[in-house]
Amino acid sequence: MGFMDRVTSNLRLMLQRPPRQQYAALCYRIKKKQGQIEVLLATSRDTGRWVIPKGWPMAGKKAHQVAEREAFEEVGVKGKVEKEPLGYYHYRKTLDNGLKIPVRVQVHALEVDECLKSFPEKGSRTLEWVSCEEAAMRVNEPELKILFLQFGEKMQPRTPPQPIKAAS
After folding, report:
1. pTM for this predicted structure
2. 43 and which of 30, 94, 126, 148 could share a cystine (Cβ 3.0–4.6 Å)?
3. What phi, psi does 107 have (nearest 5°)?
């Protein structure tokens, strides 16, 4: 291996950092009459892409608490957040200086009890309740698409089997 190859290899290793960690909330509600599940999407403030509320770790808060806090701040919802993660997805975050860094997002399901009229980022995002299938079509991240579809399957209303009438 030549000198330039070693320099290139060392530089590549120095720049390959493990992904940064964020925590997100997949906010959902179940429509009472139909029993259908809806998830809440929001537009990002910078690019207008469809996303779920997420943020960086916070001192003194566990992962699910960060997800719950971001759901309040970004989309104005309160509810019961699951402590165990629903899953993970990855994306590349563009920093203010233009550098793109890998980010791993740990997602927690949050069943929405209350939609607030006032919250910190009100007016800076568009919010929309949609089906899991529609959410999967709107988001860019392939792993997040899969999470929405799997969540929709898991939460599918179960209809009890109907008894079969015997022929007389």
Report:
1. 0.82
2. 126
3. -105, 135
